[in-house]
Amino acid sequence: MDPKNGSSFTGFILLGFSDRPQLERVLFVVLLIFYLFTLLGNTSIIALSRLDPHLQTPMYFFLSNLSFLDLCYTTSTVPQLLVHLRGGDKSISFGGCVAQLFVSLGLGCTECLLLGVMAFDRYAAVCRPLHYTVIMHPRLCALMASASWFIGFANSSLQMGLIFLVPLCGRNKIDHFFCEVTLLLKLACVDTTENENELFSVSVIILLIPVTLITFSYGHIVRAVLRIKSATGQRKAFGTCGSHLTVVSLFYGTAIYIYVQPSNNYSQDQGKFISLFYTIVTPMANPFVYTLRNKDVTGAMRKVFCQDYDSR
Fold first, then answer.
1. CB distance 9 to 1 below 8 Å
2. Are the C-beta atoms of residues 49 and 105 closer than 8 Å to each other?
């Protein structure tokens, strides 16, 4: 490969966990099980939201978007990782790397924004219950969801430009299991400090917008709940927000660890396992977080299964 011409790249080598062959065998089995549960859980949420009229509300509309997003995000990385864990070939084409990075960046940004929108939905439900159906009109819900997807992939396009406009050197080994921003910049022939600073600034801005909306929403929610004199009423109000707060904590905790901390504090081995957490564990956990203590969803599941059983 010509070290001065990035276009001469035919592909990259994703090292992943190749230095730990015993771990690869265990990871293959664990990740395959997790991936199947991710497909099952998120597909079930989407199907139930469509089939049960009681779940055709703004909350479950956004939850269906989140489930579809998680399905796409996990599928953009995990199937390829499973193939690499089972075989000796760890390569990925240049086009495949570009596509994977574009999709993962776009979906990650979209989830940031979507979680902020879902927090606003909970604010309207708890703080403005009498006007909830007016505030969260189906058109507004569709607009907010569409805006999240559009901004997410517009941001991905911007970041892709900052990454792939720099000339790449002859090195093509990436010490990760998928194409990752900071590691791709390390393959550049030039100083990428300015690019890294710009990417860091964009990441912080993308995080701050939904975090501000989440903080605003839950600040008002807490004040509204504390005015409720009944302990049962307080538990019910907090219960409607508990699942969302759990998902927010899982997502933002890992995102901040990976993308916002200074690079000199970044451990590559830690980064790989944290990346495994947010690429497979979090998307698998989200449906269960929303269903385990959710009577609406469990009731819808019983109704659908009972109808299928009775039809036989």
1. yes
2. no
Sign of CA dihedral 286, 216, 235, 136: negative
Q: What is the CA radius of gyration of the chain?
A: 21
What tokens were used for 104? Answer: 């993962």
C-alpha separations of 64 from 56, 126, 252, 258 in Å:
10, 21, 20, 26
The DSSP result for 47-94, as a single string, is HHHHH-GGG-SHHHHHHHHHHHHHHHHHHTTHHHHHHHHHSS--EEEH
pLDDT (tens digit, 0 to 9) for every residue of the chain, 312 residues total?
344 444 445 789 998 888 888 888 899 999 999 999 999 999 989 998 888 888 889 999 999 999 999 999 999 999 999 999 988 788 999 889 989 999 999 999 999 999 999 999 999 998 998 999 999 999 999 999 999 999 999 999 988 888 877 887 767 888 889 998 888 888 888 888 888 888 888 878 888 889 899 999 999 998 988 888 878 777 777 777 888 888 888 888 877 776 655 555 556 677 788 888 888 988 998 888 887 667 777 777 777 666 655 555
Q: What are phi and psi of 284, to 5 degrees?
A: -75, -35
Pairing verdict, β 11-14 and 91-93: antiparallel
